[in-house]
Design goal:
The complex is a heterodimer of chains A (309) and B (249).
Chain A: H1 2-9, H2 13-38, H3 47-64, H4 68-92, H5 97-117, E1 127-128, H6 143-165, H7 168-178, H8 180-185, H9 190-216, E2 218-219, H10 221-225, H11 227-240, H12 247-266, H13 272-287, H14 291-308
Antiparallel strand pairs in A: 1-2
Helix pairs in contact in A: 2-6, 2-9, 2-11, 2-12, 3-4, 3-5, 3-9, 4-9, 6-9, 7-9, 11-12, 11-13, 11-14, 12-13
Chain B: E1 2-11, E2 14-24, E3 29-33, H1 40-47, E4 55-60, E5 63-64, H2 70-75, E6 78-80, H3 93-101, H4 108-121, H5 137-150, E7 155-159, H6 167-182, E8 186-190, H7 194-200, E9 203-208, E10 211-216, H8 218-223, H9 225-232, H10 236-248
Parallel strand pairs in B: 3-8, 3-9, 6-7, 7-8
Antiparallel strand pairs in B: 1-2, 1-4, 4-5, 9-10
The chains are: A mainly alpha (309), B alpha/beta (249).
């Protein structure tokens, strides 16, 4: 309810823009979390799905006039399809851990190079979505409209995560994360289960990419498929708490809040955000490996034991 | 129930399992013993689908399951436990067991309820909400057993469930295994602890250097010269007989 009322109270474009980014990356972080946090398969190349979603809707909208709302759906399908391909190839050959991370990174890079050289993606110049305001066109005169779309996307992702935690698939995914051999011994089809995880993750990430396209009305290979997107997506759940429903939301708020603060204090020097992300990642992994949700959980447990005493 | 015929497996030049044939009849408790490195765990891995044999066949409940993936073997009712326990560390005992129960129950609530029932059978009811990594060795062994049991197997392969247990815990574990067997599950177990083998198993197979060297009731096995030699070295049986003869004089 509070989230729905925000645009009426908060009339600043800057803060709405900030919240849109937070919500978008909360959703993307949850998408990554499904594969990385719950299933334990760390991807360094979620840009492959993000970029595919972004380009799918851009190309179809500009070239064939496909409605952007349908663009979100086709982007989900395209992201899921690329995820299926990446997942099939890497899981079939038993790639785990850093090998899986590297192969996903490689896929994203290959796609970036392809997008850079192909004709229909506009090459290195990228694609501009023509301005044509209207709800039917997923273009809004003020940021409130985008805010609601981002909010819906974030809620969708969180609900998917919440449902997974209460399902057989989710239980099997967590079993794979903890111990793949033991999961297999207990009748878990680990290959099929990992494929489902990566497809769900890829489809959601594809939607995020499509939203990005229609929000900024511009896409190029560096934005869509660059390693920056992959890193930003994976940082969110790592900061917030891997394998938790609310971790990505908390992580996204902190990551972008701190990022904004850093920009204000130090100016928008190129590469600054990457340095900032790197430092943040090191600090988190060293001091809070369970993320923000882990800290919340520890404080709650401490107050409970105090209440008992 | 289980029939293994002419099973072979080698790793590089090492023949880990050589032409092994054996049979486990429905309703039995059968033990597999042998010195370290005899190929016992490898044999279990071959039967449960974790390793693909170089030759030979595995038949379970009348169907050929040779080379079938572990989860499919498990779905047919043949489940293994691991010698080195493999708990899902960050999940609770209940969630651990529920993973096994999910094989038969799709719904989360049902699987969790089922997990509680199984936990009771192995005496873990009081530990249901404990994370698996916080359990003692004895409790981990039971958890390993409980998870396997939750898949509702017809044949249970137990790989050294007694290892690392003190005498009290072992007595308790023997009671649990017997209880599972009484519930209609056929048990095939690898065991080093002879006391456990003697009190549980009706038949014993002895493996040495990948080959079956003896088969019989526990008491018979302990007297066979080839078995004594496998454990204590060449000529040991002779020396023991000589020593016994000398002692009686």
């Amino acid at each position: 309810m509070v989230a729905l009322a925000v645009p009426y109270v908060l009339r600043s474009d800057f803060w709405l823009g900030f919240l849109i980014t937070v919500l978008l990356f909360a959703a993307l972080g949850m998408a990554w979390n499904i594969l990385g946090g719950y299933t334990g398969q760390f991807s360094f190349g979620h840009a492959a799905f993000f970029g595919t979603g972004a380009y799918t809707t851009a190309v179809l909208h500009i070239g064939l006039g496909l409605n952007p709302w349908l663009g979100l759906a086709t982007a989900a399908a395209a992201g899921g399809l690329v995820a299926l391909l990446v997942g099939y190839l890497s899981f079939r050959y038993g790639l785990r851990g850093s090998y899986f991370a590297l192969i996903t990174l490689a896929f994203a890079e290959v796609l970036r190079i392809l997008a850079n050289s192909a004709e229909f993606t506009g090459g290195g110049v990228g694609l501009y979505v023509p301005l044509d305001l209207g709800i039917a066109n997923l273009q809004f005169a003020d940021k409130a409209g985008y805010y609601y779309v981002a909010l819906a996307f974030a809620v969708l992702s969180l609900v998917v995560g919440w449902m997974l935690e209460r399902s057989r698939l989710g239980a099997q995914m967590m079993a794979i994360r903890e111990n793949e051999d033991a999961a297999q011994a207990l009748g878990v089809d680990t290959f099929a289960c990992k494929l489902k995880a990566i497809v769900i993750s890829g489809a959601l990430t594809g939607i995020g990419g499509a939203f990005y396209t229609h929000y900024y009305l511009y896409i190029d290979p560096g934005i869509a498929y660059g390693p920056g997107v992959s890193v930003e997506i994976l940082l969110v759940p790592i900061i917030g708490g891997l394998g938790t429903v609310f971790g990505p939301l908390a992580g996204s708020a902190v990551l972008h809040g701190a990022g904004e603060l850093a920009r204000r204090l130090m100016g928008d020097a190129p590469g600054l955000s990457l340095i900032f992300y790197g430092v943040l990642l090191v600090v988190m992994v060293r001091f809070m490996p369970e993320g923000l949700m882990g800290v919340v959980w520890r404080i709650r447990r401490r107050s409970e034991t105090q209440a008992d005493a | 129930m289980l029939e293994v015929r002419g099973l072979n497996k080698s790793f590089g030049g090492l023949l880990a399992v050589a032409d092994v044939s054996l049979r486990v009849t429905e309703g039995d408790i059968v033990a597999l013993v042998g010195p370290n490195g005899a190929g016992k765990t490898t044999l279990f891995a071959l039967v449960s689908g974790f390793l693909r044999p170089d030759g030979g066949t595995v038949t379970f409940a009348g169907q050929d399951v040779t080379g079938l993936a572990p989860h499919l073997v498990c779905a047919r009712g043949l489940v293994r436990t691991f010698q080195v326990v493999q708990p899902f560390g960050r999940l609770s005992v209940r969630e651990n067991i529920a993973v096994g129960a999910h094989l038969r129950f799709a719904e989360r609530g049902e699987a969790m309820a089922r997990a509680a029932t199984v936990a009771q059978r192995v005496g873990m009811s009081h530990l249901l909400d404990r994370p698996a990594h916080a359990l003692t060795v004895a409790a981990r062994k039971r958890l390993e057993l409980a998870r396997a049991l939750a898949t509702e197997p017809r044949l249970l392969l137990l790989d050294e469930v007694m290892a690392g247990l003190n005498p009290t815990e072992m007595t308790e574990m023997i009671r649990i295994v017997r209880g599972i067997h009484d519930g209609g599950v056929t048990v095939f177990l690898i065991e080093h602890v002879m006391q456990a083998v003697a009190s549980l198993a009706e038949r014993v197979h002895v493996l040495n250097y990948g080959r079956l060297i003896a088969e019989g009731a526990p008491a018979e096995i302990a007297r066979m010269p080839e078995v004594i030699e496998a454990y204590l070295g060449h000529g040991a049986a002779e020396r023991m007989t000589a020593h016994a003869a000398g002692g009686s004089r």
